[in-house]
């Protein structure tokens, strides 16, 4: 791990403050990150469930955190693909947590996966895979 939890937390607060709307960093390790989203009315869709875009944003930021923890603070590492499968309905007004793991990190791209869990449910509510483009000069 190149970046500490505290360094990444400070980086996100300074350079990506809007990201707090999508979740907060809870843990960081060698190629993994954990994020938590406190679900409120802003994150719900009609029918009383967590919206797909809220879960997608949480998954995306979780992979970004896991990647930066491994390669360093590279602001221009960007999502080039995100695929998500919604597996079951999350518990409304209950926090959701994402655990991202990097599967492969190359010179110009990286692949990660994320499982999202809703507090109160044992099984995951979503699974995502993401590809990040890494700028050539790190």
From TrEMBL:
Annotated CDD domains: PaaI_thioesterase
Family matches, as Gene3D superfamilies: Hotdog Thioesterase
SUPFAM superfamilies referenced in this protein's UniProt entry, alphabetically: Thioesterase/thiol ester dehydrase-isomerase (SSF54637)
GO molecular function: acyl-CoA hydrolase activity
InterPro entries noted in UniProt: HotDog_dom_sf, PAAI_dom, Thioestr_dom
Every Thioesterase domain range: 47-123
Superkingdom as given in the UniProt entry: Bacteria
Pfam families in UniProt: 4HBT
Position of the signal peptide: none
Coiled-coil positions: none
Keywords carried by this UniProt record: Hydrolase
Protein name, as recorded: Uncharacterized domain 1-containing protein
Source species taxonomy: Bacteria, Pseudomonadati, Pseudomonadota, Gammaproteobacteria, Pseudomonadales
